[in-house]
Amino acid sequence: MNQAVAAVDERRQWDRLMAMARIGAIAGDGVNRACLTELDRQARRLLIAWAGEIGADVSIDAAANLWLRRQGADPEAAPVVTGSHMDTQPNGGRFDGIYGVIAGLEALTALHRSGTALRRPVEVVAWTNEEGGRFAPGCMGSMSWSGFRRIEDFADVLDPDGVRFADALASHLASETDLPDRPLGGRPHAYVEAHIEQGPRLEAEGLDIGVVTGIQGSRWFTVTLTGETAHAGTTPLAMRRDAVQDMVRAIAALNTLMHDPQDVLRFTVGRIAVEPNTSNSVANRASFTIDLRHPDKDVLLARGDAIAGVVQAAMRGASVSVQENFHALPVEFSPRVIDAVERAASEQRRGHMRLPSGAFHDAQFVVPVCPTGMIFVPCHKGISHNPAEYSEPSQLAAGTCVLAQTLTELASN
Ligand code: GLV
Ligand code: MN
Ligand code: MN
């Protein structure tokens, strides 16, 4: 067995995951660690302390993406990068995102402890704001790193308390001035991200490893309706411009638009806000989000482009605007990385299958920059974005062993 793989320590990795899970712990074993909060900072400082134990170089870029680097024999060679995100959903679990960061650190630790000499540097990245739970959309750190969007484009995004993204980012960066800056962007040799599957397939098949082939496309929209507030007891229905009633009609019409007998398309209305939000006032304002996903680009584009017209047609009294704030087309991963992950899983005699990802990941935005792939490990009943999210310590360690071997192969040549 590869020496670095033999040095992967299941216990150390699990203990670190549980230490991270205490930062922002909520009832039912969950975690609420929103990006660029004090809790996010505490988690990052803990990661930095662990990186210090193995002499990794730490740096931060203008999007607050945090980088840990192990030098290679050829420091000029493009690095092999792994990582994921440390923020969670408001009602999130203990593994989504943080597993990929801790698995990367564990692989780096194993390379260090085993004295494995590699030609290329290996870097672990913790991307800023993958979830989009505090500041929408997600993947701001990886989108701005890859040049898909500029970090400045997100400056005026507000969190639910009215804090601007630019202000949260600036105050975070100001609290991290002891860390060397690095340029935003780069051209790694390859990128491979470990993550829990967030779906039920690996567990159902009794397999250890998902060799991820690509990620379906996603589009996010915010629909905002403006009506007129009025007295609930005195205003005849015919005289109302009721934003909530029009919103209900719009969502019903969208359910018809998004109907898919094959149940491949994903359509979610996950956030609704109403003003003035009292029982006895007709709403003058209502807004709701749409999360639309599909593996076929043409379906994603056609259904997404039809949203504005369908919503407009559903209005009786309110006016409406539709804003798109996230647009990620489906991607396919690099055969080179897919094959390296598959080879590592086979050589380690771990049951594995190829599968696409239904969730989006930072890896989606790394695809245009360098050969990219992902490794999935099973999670209990596929539960995710939920405090009950769970993977066994041994399942998580198996993914890290495959990651360590994949990194070793990719960083050797
Ligand atoms: C990522 O968190 C996603 O929503 O797919
Ligand atoms: Mn994630
Ligand atoms: Mn997530």
Describe the structure.
- The structure is a single chain.
- This protein is α+β, with helices and mostly antiparallel strands.
- Helix content is 34%, strand content 23%.
- It contains 12 helices and 18 strands.
- It has helices at 3-6, 10-21, 38-53, 98-113, 140-146, 165-174, 201-205, 243-257, 297-313, 335-347, 363-366, 393-412; strands at 25-26, 30-31, 57-60, 66-70, 80-85, 122-127, 190-196, 209-215, 217-226, 230-231, 266-268, 272-275, 281-282, 285-294, 319-328, 331-332, 352-357, 372-377.
- α4 links the parallel β5 and β6 (122-127).
- α2 (10-21) packs antiparallel against α4 (98-113), α4 (98-113) crosses α12 and α8 packs antiparallel against α9 (297-313).
- The longest helix has 20 residues, at 393-412.
- It is globular, with a radius of gyration of 23 Å.
- The two termini are 19 Å apart.
- It binds glyoxylic acid (GLV) and manganese (II) ion (2 copies).
Number of helices: 12
Q: End-to-end span in angstroms?
A: 19 Å
Strand element count: 18
- Give the percentage of residues in beta strands: 15-25%
Shape, per Cα inertia axes: globular
- Each distinct ligand: glyoxylic acid, manganese (II) ion
Structural class: alpha+beta
